[in-house]
């Protein structure tokens, strides 16, 4: 049983999709990562920041999932980071309508002393300087540092982003971001270039088309589970990352073979996340449901061709 | 060792892609299907039509792969079906520049008498009335009738297409076509609706994102192999179908479990097709290369999570 430290946003989200709209609900990268990782046997903590407009009940939800929230700073008279987005009809693309950084603008992350020796460090999508700051606070080099980021940081802070990438073991980005980061259309070539930047593992997320894990000349693929209904993709990528690092922290094994399993666990949990708005599905999720769907993943992908 | 009957176009293709352009080269759905199926132990025949402008050397290529070409009619003073297309930069979309039906306009398919008892009938993309005509010529109901089609027939001959679909056991279409055929965005729902139209198996091809096989409430997924370079997607869907039905004809087994393997074989062969222009790669392909890549498919997809 390992220790997982998560840094990232804890936030309000408001979502519009063809299936409805929500008012301000619980969101943020660290929230989704933490809820997914909570499906595993591990010690986890979140480093983040909120305003005092953030309901205690939301913090309690995280705490009740066994997440150490002592690293979530609450700013007096501060307002919590707020994101509002609208999904297009096919749910594959979205427009950001509002991004109010609020307290996030002055975020100075502080790693709790009992997590400075975490086995796995998950850097959720944030300014690269904040991600680097957290790496530097660690007293021991974690067994695995995982990085999530997005095109915004590539457009605005590429040198800082490359510096963080240099310090990480695994990066999780989507296909378009992998292409932007490397100027390579082929994801195979893009993954090679990213490995040369530092990370020995590269995870490329393709949304409803699954995720690829690259390591040296090897590649593993986890499909997304084909679903009858997708209500809200918000947080699916973070949930994937949370399942991925959660499984690694539980098993304390960073071999390629174990990371293959971790990618399946990530895809599995992400398949639940999209079934309801926001964190709703993840908050209800039971071990039995998770195991049943893992079995579906086996049915979905396993075959038995004997080579003659 | 079963008998496979293929009906479809044998044609000239001219292709423009970001990687170059070709003059009139060997193409056509039945050609790609036949070359892929030729990787398996089976008796195969093509029913098609060409003009006398079609080089004997192209016909010999097919014959030398063991394909019975007695059902390919050669029209004196006729011109062979010609398709010219141009791929966009990402190779995921293309414009058709020329479609000269030529002799195809008066195609009256004739199934050779020794293939009227074929075990597997593969209906390549053609006018649905021609596909139905071939079904009606069979003296025994084939163990499996597989249908490929495209959006053009949905736009122009939907009632006729639905009649063919009613007579088939498996349909292979792409994701957009599945959506158009059913007015369902969710591929899970689309596959359910298509099964209700007749076919007990539905294969939805997603190009570089792999292929899904649906049967009742079960689903199987075969990824496309991530490739460094894709030169020319022409014929990839037909090559997939050819590998799929070729494996079924060789094994003479139409269980869902065997069809899972068939989908992998189809994806495997399609991964070669796109590596060079037209049929070039398929004509050179060796058993050793095919087997080596099947092993890569295993590495790509197999994992071992024990449920606790």
Q: Biggest chain pair contact, residues each?
A: A-B, 38 and 39 residues
The CA-CA distance between the termini of chain A, in Å, is 42 Å
- Give helix and strand order of chain A, one letter per element, not per position: EEEEHEHEEEEEHEHHEHHEEEHHHH
CA gyration radius of chain A, whole angstroms: 18 Å
The CATH topology label of chain A is: UDP-N-acetylmuramoyl-L-alanine:D-glutamate ligase
Number of domains of chain A: 1
The top level CATH class name of chain A: Alpha Beta
What is the CATH architecture assignment of chain A?
3-Layer(aba) Sandwich
User: Average pLDDT across residues of chain A?
Assistant: 96
Oligomeric category: homodimer
**What is the 3D shape of chain A?**
globular
Give the DSSP E fraction of chain A (strand runs of 2 or more residues). Answer: 15-25%
CATH-wise, what's the superfamily of chain A? Ribokinase
Please give the share of residues in helix of chain A.
Answer: 25-40%
Number of helices of chain A: 11
Biggest sheet layout of chain A: 10 strands, mixed
Beta-strand segment tally of chain A: 15
Q: Structural class, from helix and strand content of chain A?
A: alpha/beta
Low-confidence stretches of chain A: none
Please describe the topology of this protein.
Two copies of one chain form a homodimer.
Chain A: E1 3-7, E2 11-17, E3 20-21, E4 25-27, H1 29-37, E5 43-51, H2 56-64, E6 67-68, E7 72-75, E8 82-87, E9 94-100, E10 120-123, H3 128-137, E11 144-148, H4 151-156, H5 158-166, E12 170-174, H6 175-182, H7 187-197, E13 201-205, E14 211-215, E15 218-222, H8 236-251, H9 256-273, H10 280-284, H11 287-301
Parallel strand pairs in A: 1-5, 1-10, 2-8, 5-6, 5-7, 10-11, 11-12, 12-13
Antiparallel strand pairs in A: 2-3, 2-4, 8-9, 13-14, 14-15
């Amino acid at each position: 049983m390992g220790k997982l430290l998560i840094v990232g946003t804890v936030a309000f989200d408001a979502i519009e999709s063809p299936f409805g709209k929500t008012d301000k609900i619980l969101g943020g990268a660290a929230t989704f990562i933490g809820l997914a990782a909570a499906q595993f046997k591990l010690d986890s903590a979140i480093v983040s920041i909120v305003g005092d407009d953030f309901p205690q009940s939301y913090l309690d939800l995280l705490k009740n999932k066994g997440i150490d929230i002592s690293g979530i700073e609450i700013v007096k008279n501060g307002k919590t980071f707020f994101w509002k987005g609208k999904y297009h009809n096919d749910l594959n693309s979205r427009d950001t309508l509002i991004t109010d950084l609020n307290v996030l603008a002055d975020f100075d992350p502080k790693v709790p002393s009992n997590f400075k020796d975490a086995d796995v460090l998950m850097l959720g999508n944030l300014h690269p300087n904040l991600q680097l700051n957290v790496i530097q606070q660690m007293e021991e080099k974690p067994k695995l540092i995982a990085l999530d980021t997005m095109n915004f940081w590539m457009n605005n802070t590429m040198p800082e982003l490359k510096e963080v990438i240099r310090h990480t073991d695994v990066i999780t980005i989507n296909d378009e971001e992998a292409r932007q980061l490397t100027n390579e259309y082929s994801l195979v070539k893009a993954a090679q270039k990213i490995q040369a930047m530092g990370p020995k593992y590269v995870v490329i997320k393709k949304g409803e088309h699954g995720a690829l894990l690259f390591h040296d000349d090897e590649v593993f693929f986890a499909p997304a589970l084909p679903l009858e209904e997708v209500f809200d993709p918000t947080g699916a990528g973070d949930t994937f990352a949370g399942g991925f690092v959660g499984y690694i922290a539980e098993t304390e094994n960073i071999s390629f073979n174990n990371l293959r399993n971790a990618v399946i666990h990530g895809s599995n949990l992400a398949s639940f996340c999209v079934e309801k708005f926001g964190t709703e599905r993840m908050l209800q999720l039971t071990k039995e449901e998770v195991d049943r769907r893992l079995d579906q993943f086996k049915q979905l992908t396993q075959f038995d061709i004997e080579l003659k």
